């Protein structure tokens, strides 16, 4: 077996560890995806493995996942050892198989049947920050093959410390973020671009190091893979993570970006009886043209109403011209505080995929000089406020008055 690729030394322990769990975290440029692909190839040379590579939603995972892994196999000079059969890659020498699945079926609202995990010895969950704990518990119980050691690898970009992974694998075990090593039944691997500099361009490294000076918070979170801590004085402390429900009425809020600010879109389900508002981020991006924005709205919202920032009536008119159902929000004196009060009267449930929304919730604070919200970290939160104020204070009647 001849290879041109060397596995990062921090990952090599995952091949020999007796731990059931491997928790792999890291920041931008850390080489997580590449190292995991190499790890999968090496594991497949052990006989009797069924290795499952999973993401939260299938999308084009089967084709893209197989293509990505085939590229790594070629890089390692091992093409003769593998063949592709349907949605899996088989190691011809050992008979072990690598399969690709989405943990969610269809529109991403139903947990996949655990029968797809039958016989699995190793499970890799990529983008594990999007996996909710109740789904993970169900999946965890499905990895129980007697043929080989059972392994579950969680590969993720750290997010907020409110995430169940942080509570379960760090806080409850007294493990510091960024730890490398074994604690109990968990093998921790954390890498940054500093562990992968030999594979990065000089200009990319300089870009990251400039970010360290210009935006230390973003550098710590996105580049060094730090966990986001809630700032003191945050406005919304009434939120937790939970899955966006299936087959419910959904409304949408949107805020338009200016200069460096992003355009945003949020899906919202309001349950008045339970006093809960469910939130799911769909768009957080700047530099979009009006046709691009309209296309995203059309694909996400269909013919459902969007309540948008009233500061751009011309943009709203142009988007409406694309056949979309969009209306300007109502603003005025005291509208910000009124909207905040409305949202604070409900329990906010944030879908785990809504990374930018969680960042805003942890950083949206009151100014020192009184009951005034700081105009920062509020692009998604403003969109939510527009829509919820419209529906909860806007005189909606009939079947739409209660969700």
Topology readout:
Layout: H1 9-16, E1 21-26, H2 32-43, E2 50-57, H3 61-75, E3 82-85, E4 88-91, E5 97-105, E6 110-111, E7 122-126, H4 133-140, E8 151-156, H5 164-171, E9 181-183, E10 186-191, H6 202-214, H7 216-223, E11 239-241, E12 251-255, E13 263-271, E14 276-285, H8 290-301, E15 306-308, H9 313-320, E16 326-328, H10 335-344, E17 347-350, H11 355-361, H12 379-393
Parallel strand pairs: 1-8, 1-10, 2-5, 2-7, 7-8, 11-17, 12-15, 14-17, 15-16
Antiparallel strand pairs: 3-4, 4-5, 5-6, 9-10, 12-13, 13-14
Helix pairs in contact: 1-2, 2-3, 6-7, 10-12
What brief labels describe this structure?
Nucleotidyltransferase, domain 5; alpha/beta; 12 helices; seven-stranded mixed beta sheet; 403 residues; 2 domains; Rossmann fold; disordered C terminus; single chain; ten-stranded mixed beta sheet; globular
Instruction: Tell me the total number of β-strands.
Output: 17
- The CATH class of the largest domain, by name, is Alpha Beta
CATH architectural label of the largest domain: 3-Layer(aba) Sandwich
Residue ranges: pLDDT <50 for 5 or more in a row? Answer: 106-110, 395-403
Arithmetic mean of pLDDT: 87
Largest sheet: 10 strands, mixed
Indicate the structural class: alpha/beta
Q: What gross morphology would you assign?
A: globular
Radius of gyration: 23 Å
CATH 4th-level superfamily of the largest domain: P-loop containing nucleotide triphosphate hydrolases
Task: Give the number of helices.
Answer: 12
């Amino acid at each position: 077996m001849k290879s041109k690729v060397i596995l990062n030394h921090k990952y090599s322990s995952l091949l020999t560890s007796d731990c059931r769990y491997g928790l792999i975290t890291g920041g931008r440029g850390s080489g997580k995806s590449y190292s995991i692909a190499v790890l999968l190839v090496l594991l497949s040379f052990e006989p009797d493995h069924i290795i499952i590579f999973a993401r939260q939603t299938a999308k084009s995972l089967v084709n893209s996942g197989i293509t990505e892994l085939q590229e790594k196999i070629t890089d390692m000079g091992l093409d003769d050892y593998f063949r592709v059969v349907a949605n899996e890659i088989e190691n011809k020498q050992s008979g072990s198989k690598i399969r690709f699945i989405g943990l969610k079926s269809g529109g991403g609202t139903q947990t996949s049947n655990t029968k797809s995990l039958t016989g699995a010895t190793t499970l890799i969950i990529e983008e594990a920050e999007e996996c909710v704990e109740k789904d993970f518990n169900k999946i965890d119980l499905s990895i129980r093959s007697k043929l080989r050691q059972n392994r579950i690898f969680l590969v993720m970009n750290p997010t907020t410390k409110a995430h169940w992974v942080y509570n379960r694998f760090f806080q409850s075990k007294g493990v510091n973020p960024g730890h490398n090593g074994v604690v109990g039944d968990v093998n921790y691997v954390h890498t940054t671009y500093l562990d992968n500099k030999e594979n990065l361009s000089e200009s990319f490294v300089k870009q990251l190091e400039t970010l360290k000076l210009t935006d230390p918070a973003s550098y710590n979170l996105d580049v060094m893979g730090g966990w986001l801590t809630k700032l003191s004085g945050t406005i919304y402390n009434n939120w937790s993570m939970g899955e966006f429900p299936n087959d419910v009425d959904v409304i949408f809020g949107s805020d338009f970006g200016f200069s460096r600010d992003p355009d945003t879109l949020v899906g919202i389900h309001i349950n008045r009886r339970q006093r809960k508002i469910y939130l799911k981020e769909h768009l957080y991006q700047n530099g979009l043209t009006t046709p691009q924005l309209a296309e995203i709205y059309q694909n996400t919202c269909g013919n459902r109403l969007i309540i948008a920032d009233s500061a751009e009536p011309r943009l709203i008119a142009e988007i409406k011209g694309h056949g979309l159902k969009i209306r300007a929000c109502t603003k005025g004196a005291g509208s910000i505080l009124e909207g905040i009060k409305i949202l604070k009267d409900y329990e906010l449930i944030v879908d785990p995929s809504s990374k930018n929304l969680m960042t805003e919730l942890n950083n949206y604070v009151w100014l020192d000089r009184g009951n005034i919200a700081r105009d920062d970290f509020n692009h998604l939160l403003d969109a939510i406020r527009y829509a919820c104020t419209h529906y909860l204070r806007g005189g909606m009647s009939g079947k739409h008055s209660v969700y």
